[in-house]
Amino acid sequence: MSSNETMRAVGLYQYLPADHPESLLDVEVPKPAPTGRDLLVRIKAISVNPVDTRVRASNSKREEVPRVLGWDASGIVEETGPDCTLFHPGDEVYYAGSIVRPGTNSEFHLVDEMIVGRKPRTLDFAAAAALPLTSITAWEALYNRLGVSSQHAENSGRTILIIGAAGGVGSIAIQLAKLAGLTVIGTASRPESSAWAKSMGADHIINHHEAFMPQVRAIGIEYVDYIFCMYDTAVHWSSMVEAIKPQGKICSIVGTAEPLHLTQLQSKSVTFVWESMFTRPMFQTEDMEEQHKLLNRIADEIDMGRLRTTETRRLSPINAANLRKAHALLESKVMIGKLVIESFDRSPVE
């Protein structure tokens, strides 16, 4: 491969508001080559997550070369590194990538095969791109962090409260929790988000702008066994402390600048744990390949009709204008499900 080959991408030099015309730009960057266990993937579709918007608005530095964001993709394996054993050129794949490597908003992308899954056969590339980051997050939160049993019978009578149930992670978490046999209480505050969470399988809906405990009691549940928080940990802390069952478990994916009073959990002997799906690839953990396995499991469940994609909006092509639009929509806090963008526009960069 020639070292001067380039590819189209969407990148940034400055960390600016989404409505700024230079917040995300159409750029040309060097086309990478795979080494080790890396796959070179031809990107067919991407989706946008809150992490994209947080990174874009994260600091005031100026990049010397364009920084490419994006942590969700589906595509076709173009080339494999010499040490690859899981995939071959031509395989259709989907994955979320690593926060410490260049992102997926580019025509070609390098990713370690240990965090890549086979694309669900029953979905097109765009619908598949909606799934990886949220599926990994929900799966790890439920099974690795909260310790939910995979045995349906063991979860009879157990309840989980999912805060932010209509978002991307919540939409998958509801489905996985129902497959595990849990009773699911989702939080939402608008009729359309409540309806979406119900369509994903939530048994009950409560309003996250009100105290949880009275609403949980009103549906005949004294305490919840598990809580999975995807929206403002500090704001909901007191309600979570009240609603969690003695010896229950709380998991959050939302960091906070405010201190959390963990001693409030002491009398109930409650476990609190964080989930970040980037932990395994960021630290190259010895169990990193578990993300490959769980993505394949998700694909199987999709293909068997037991799970469904959470795509709710699709844009085309993949370019800076559409990515700026997508970032602004996510930051408006009204997005339900997942937004995906498919297909690179091959017109020249202006």
TrEMBL record:
Q: State whether keyword NADP applies.
A: yes
Note whether Oxidoreductase occurs among the keywords: yes
Keyword terms of this UniProt record: Metal-binding, NADP, Oxidoreductase, Zinc
* Signal sequence annotation: none
Q: Where is the Enoyl reductase (ER) domain?
A: 19-341
Q: What Pfam families does this protein map onto?
A: ADH_N (PF08240), ADH_zinc_N (PF00107)
Q: Which family does it belong to?
A: Belongs to the zinc-containing alcohol dehydrogenase family. Quinone oxidoreductase subfamily.
The molecule here is called Zinc-type alcohol dehydrogenase-like protein
The species is Paenibacillus gyeongsangnamensis
